[in-house]
Predict the structure.
Amino acid sequence: MKKLIPAIAGAVLVVALALIYLNWQRSRMNPTVVEFHQNADRLIEGLQQYKEFVKSYPSGSLVDIAKALSGQSEKDRVLILATSKNQKNAKGEIVDPWGTPLQFYFAENGVMIRSAGPNQVFEDSGVPGSDDLFRTEVKK
């Protein structure tokens, strides 16, 4: 019986890992998740272009960032075409495919874009079932 317990625990662990992997694969194939990643890649490209022209990332609120990328900033008039396809809400914030405003994080050498995911709620990564999505690129 004592030899059977580790075998059962090992089997449960293998099944749990397989389910996590399958859920991860399913989310990667979800067309809306793919759309988020494509949009985020364009946004990151646009943010990097903006930084090349202006020497800094856009700052301020989500609306300010969206305005800066579309050439509507009062400070810098730089139009970034890579970001023109992104959808915006009524406030003018750039939103993910589910309609939730994206969050932007800027560092010295990179950008991270965060989406609340399909459930439209920003969650800590430790929350079971958290579906938040992230996209990042570090420019060297």
Residues 4-29 form the longest helix (26 residues).
